[in-house]
Amino acid sequence: MKLIKMITVFIALTFSVNAAPTKEMKKELALGGYCPVCYIAAGKANMGTDKFTSEYNGKTYQFVSAGTKAMFDKEPAKFLPQYDGYCAFGMSLGKKFESDPTAFTVIDGKIYLNKNAKIQGMFAKGTAGHLVKADSHWKKMEMKKKEMEMKK
Fold first, then answer.
1. Which residues lie below 8 Å from residue 127, measured CB to CB, with a gap of 6+?
2. Contacts of 108 (CB under 8 A, 6+ apart)
C-alpha cells in the first residue's frame, strides 16, 4: 500500500513539474483574443482564433483570417489600440483601467477601448475633450516609465 502511495505522489510531482508554464505560455494574449484588424476593417469586435496569430511587443494577437493577420503584420502600429489598450475614458482621468475589447470606438483610424459599454457612452459625450486629456496623461505616464527604466 505504501508503494502505491509513493508511486502516486511521484507521478503527481512529475506532472506538476512538467505542467509548469513555459515562456510561450506566459505571453500575454492581447485584446482578450479579439482581432485588432476587425475594429477598423469591419467596424466590429470579432474574436480571432489561435490558428492565426502574431507576436508584437511581447503580446500575442489573434486574427479571424490569414488576410487580417497579413494586414497586421504589414502595419502593426496601425491596428494597436491607443494607450496600450487601457480604457480611453480612464486615461482622460489619468487612470489605467482595464478595458473590455468589445467596448470600442474608432476615431480617425485609431482604436480606443473602454472599461465597459456604460463608460463607452460617457466617453462618447465629449470625445474630443477626453482625447486631449487622455493624450496628455498618456505622454506623462510614458515619460515616467522611461525615467524609471533609465534608473535601473
1. 105, 107
2. none
